[in-house]
């Protein structure tokens, strides 16, 4: 199965073409852009397809990161994945950034369970724990920093993600928010086809519409 993987959940804009039959990445592109995913994503997809030497029509599944992460970036990635799936008449599936971070850590520490933790700002942490085989041990959730520290202290395994420095004495990675787009592709290739991907929001948006400032009619 030829898979197109997309990631716009963070500061990276990434795409990969992956062959699940040979477990090989045919072409991948990752650009750290911060913002502007809507303007850049199609360019990244075109580059990944060109590197792979395949046409978009050859794609048999689309995989996308669904969060938690940037509200805007997640919406852009999910909308693109669902659009590709609709136009190509194929399935789109979602993977969470927490499970991708956990899979990345397991690849470096085989046989270890993993606690994936993302610094959600506003004194909160997004986290989820996974068994050594990648099975989730609980639901993804937002907790306070104190709660997260208690969970991390009692956890017998690897702690990974952007919140590592806030939860343990382990030195943070150079790019704790980074993960290979290839892992997104592999996880998505193994997911059962079913419900369309949708954003995973563990709390409401920071920006809210103002109320009480409407101009009265004359």
Q: What is the averaged pLDDT score?
A: 91
Number of discrete helical segments: 6
CATH class of the largest domain: Alpha Beta
Instruction: Predict the CATH topology of the largest domain.
Output: Nucleotidyltransferase, domain 5
Helix content class:
25-40%
- Compute the number of structural domains: 2
Helix/strand order, N-terminal first = EEEHEHEHEEEHEHH
How are the strands of the largest sheet arranged? 3-2-1-4-5
Protein name: N6-L-threonylcarbamoyladenine synthase
Domain Gcp-like: 31-150
Region (Disordered): 190-218
Pfam families: TsaD
Question: What features would you describe in this structure?
Answer:
The protein has 218 residues and is of the alpha/beta class. The chain folds into two domains: 2-96 and 178-190, 2-Layer Sandwich (Nucleotidyltransferase, domain 5); 98-166, 2-Layer Sandwich (Nucleotidyltransferase, domain 5), CATH 3.30.420. Helix content is 32%, strand content 25%. It contains six helices and nine strands; from the N terminus they run E-E-E-H-E-H-E-H-E-E-E-H-E-H-H. Strand 1 (2-7) and strand 2 (12-19) form a beta hairpin. The longest helix is centred in the middle third of the chain and has 18 residues, at 71-88. The relative contact order is 0.18. Residues 207-218 have low confidence and may be disordered.
Outline the secondary-structure elements.
Blueprint: E1 2-7, E2 12-19, E3 24-32, H1 37-52, E4 61-65, H2 71-88, E5 91-95, H3 97-108, E6 114-121, E7 124-130, E8 141-144, H4 145-154, E9 158-160, H5 164-167, H6 181-189
Parallel strand pairs: 1-4, 4-5, 6-9
Antiparallel strand pairs: 1-2, 2-3, 6-7, 7-8
């Amino acid at each position: 199965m030829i898979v197109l993987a997309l990631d716009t959940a963070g500061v990276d804009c990434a795409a990969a073409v992956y062959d699940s039959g040979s477990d090989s990445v045919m072409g991948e592109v990752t650009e750290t852009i911060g913002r502007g995913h809507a303007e850049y994503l199609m360019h990244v997809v075109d580059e990944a397809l060109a590197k792979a030497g395949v046409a978009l029509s050859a794609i048999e599944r689309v995989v996308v990161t669904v969060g938690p992460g940037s509200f805007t970036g997640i919406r852009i990635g999910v909308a693109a994945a669902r659009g590709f799936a609709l136009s190509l008449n194929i399935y789109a599936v979602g993977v969470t950034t927490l499970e991708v971070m956990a899979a990345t850590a397991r690849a470096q520490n085989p046989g270890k369970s993993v606690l994936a933790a993302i610094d959600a700002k506003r004194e909160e942490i997004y986290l989820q724990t996974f068994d050594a085989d990648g099975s989730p041990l609980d639901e993804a959730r937002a907790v306070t920093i104190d709660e997260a520290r208690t969970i991390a202290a009692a956890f017998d395994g690897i702690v990974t993600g952007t919140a590592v420095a806030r939860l343990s004495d382990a030195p943070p990675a150079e790019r704790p928010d980074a993960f290979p787009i290839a892992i997104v592709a592999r996880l998505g290739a193994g997911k059962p086809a079913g419900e369309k991907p949708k954003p995973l929001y563990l709390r409401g948006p920071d920006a809210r519409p103002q109320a009480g400032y409407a101009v009265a009619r004359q």
